[in-house]
Amino acid sequence: xxxxxxxxxxxxxxxxxxxxxxxxxxxxxxxxxxxxxxxxxxxxxxxxxxxxxxxxxxxxxxxxxxxxxxxxxxxxxxxxxxxxxxxxxxxxxxxxxxxxxxxxxxxxxxxxxxxxxxxxxxxxxxxxxxxxxxxxxxxxxxxxxxxxxxx
Length: 151
What we know:
The structure is a single chain. The chain has helices at 2-8, 28-36, 98-108, 111-122, 139-147; strands at 19-23, 40-43, 50-53, 62-67, 86-90, 93-96. The protein is of the alpha+beta class. It starts with a helix and ends with a helix. The mean pLDDT is 87.
C-alpha cells in the first residue's frame, strides 16, 4: 500500500507496522518453516496465519499471510488475487498490482481497508473511472468512498 501511495505523494504514506504477504498454498509449508526459525510467533490458529514479531512485542507488529486465489474468510465476496498479479517495486521487492490491491481492499472493507482506499483516492490513483475496473459486486463499496472521500 505504502509503495503505491509514495509513488505519487511520499508525504501521504500512512505508516502501519503490519505487513501482509500473499503466497500460494503450495508454499505455505516453506513460509511456516521460515517463520519457525525466526522470532515470529504464530498467533491464533494456523488457519489465519498471523505472526507477531516478538522483538518488537507490540500487538500491531504483525505479519499476515493470505493465500492466493482463496478467500481469507468464507463470507468474503471474492478470493484473493494470484501472486502473478504483482510488479517489481524496488530492491527486488514485489508488490501486488494496484488493480489487485484495490480489489483486496474492497473485499476486506474493514476500517483500515477503507482508509487505505481513501489514501489512494486522495493522491489520485483511484477515481470514478475505477467503478468500471472493479468487479460489479465491489463497485457499490468503491462508490460509497468516492461519494464521501472525507469519511
